[in-house]
Write a structure and sequence with these properties.
319 residues, mainly alpha, hpI Integrase, Chain A, 4% strand
């Protein structure tokens, strides 16, 4: 693949910025790759469409860059990430003395479109978990994964990163490593504990081929991949007769919403999810409100229809 053109001075500063992010922020290779792609895209635009280089960008030229990206079909979420990436890069350049001032300081990102997360109702979750039913090592493993992802509300990256030492079945606790390499302790209930104990006793020993520390193993005895977990969720959803767009993060959304429905405090849910800000968790309160509104509306119209039928029956008797 041909890399976007960028001046050598820009590439040298980009390399320096990446070293800083690795040393100070401990970012993953995936995140670094996205940052680099955004900054190279930014540099390419200025090299091809502006009269100044990327390091001479100002607010007006940067807005033209965003408008061009939007016109080419870049979605709002990606535009927001691009603004954040470029803005942080220029902040770094200014702080390190590579630029006298930061010309992009204070520039605003597009407003994020607010969409409520989708969730699964409890009946559908039960059907999803029960859909496998295979008495094979893989089937026992799959049930343990699904039970745990819903019971603990953990992310896909967190479940595949689990090691045996992270799990305390007797205490029903789990130490997970989340975004920003931050660790947190999460809890899970009796159904997940039973599934995990069965997996550890009956299935994992039959899958393991060496002393790998990974909790969940594939048929080759290696750490299970994120792609494999996605396929497990999709396969169980199809067997349960659910929409094929069921995906792992849906279990996390459902976990949070069901906790709030059950009366859990927002701060407790925030800690269990590992959210840095309560505003991120707040979105789930809107899901519960929307659900309550739908239930109320449905009940109201059901009562209206019932009353209408009663009136019709009464009119027929009077005739």
């Amino acid at each position: 693949m041909t890399q976007p053109k960028a001046p050598p001075a820009f590439l040298a500063l980009l390399d320096s910025y990446e070293r800083y992010l690795v040393a100070e922020k401990n970012l993953s290779r995936y995140t670094l790759r996205n940052y680099r792609a955004d900054l190279l895209d930014f540099a390419r635009y200025f090299e091809e469409q502006e009269d100044v280089g990327p390091l001479e960008a100002d607010r007006q030229s940067f807005r033209r860059y965003l408008a061009t990206a939007r016109d080419s079909g870049v979605v709002t979420a990606s535009l927001i990430r691009k603004v954040s990436t470029v803005r942080n890069f220029f902040r770094f350049l200014s702080r390190e003395g590579h630029l006298e001032t930061n010309p992009l300081a204070g520039i605003n990102a597009p407003k994020r479109e607010r969409r409520l997360p989708t969730i699964l109702i409890k009946e559908h979750l039960s059907a999803l978990i029960e859909a496998g039913g295979e008495e094979t090592p893989q089937g026992i493993r799959n049930r343990a994964i699904l039970e745990l992802m819903y019971a603990a509300g953990i992310r896909l990256s967190e479940v595949i990163g689990l090691d045996l030492r992270n799990l305390e079945p007797g205490e029903r606790t789990l130490l997970v490593r989340g975004k920003g390499n931050k660790e947190r302790m999460v809890l899970f209930g009796a159904p997940a504990e039973r599934s995990l104990r069965r997996y550890l006793k009956e299935a994992r020993p039959r899958l393991a081929v060496d002393d790998t520390p990974a909790l969940f193993l594939n048929r080759a005895g290696q750490r299970l991949s994120g792609r494999s977990v996605q396929q497990i969720v999709r396969r169980h959803a199809l067997r349960a007769g659910l929409d094929e767009r069921v995906y792992p993060h849906l279990l996390r959304h459902s976990f949070a919403t069901h906790l709030l429905d059950g009366g859990a405090e927002l701060r407790v849910v925030q800690d269990l999810l590992g959210h840095a800000s309560a505003s991120t968790t707040q979105i789930y309160t809107h899901v519960t409100e929307e659900q309550s509104r739908r239930v109320y509306t449905q009940a109201f119209y059901n009562q209206v229809r019932l009353n209408a039928r009663k009136h019709d029956d009464r009119d027929k008797k009077e005739k």
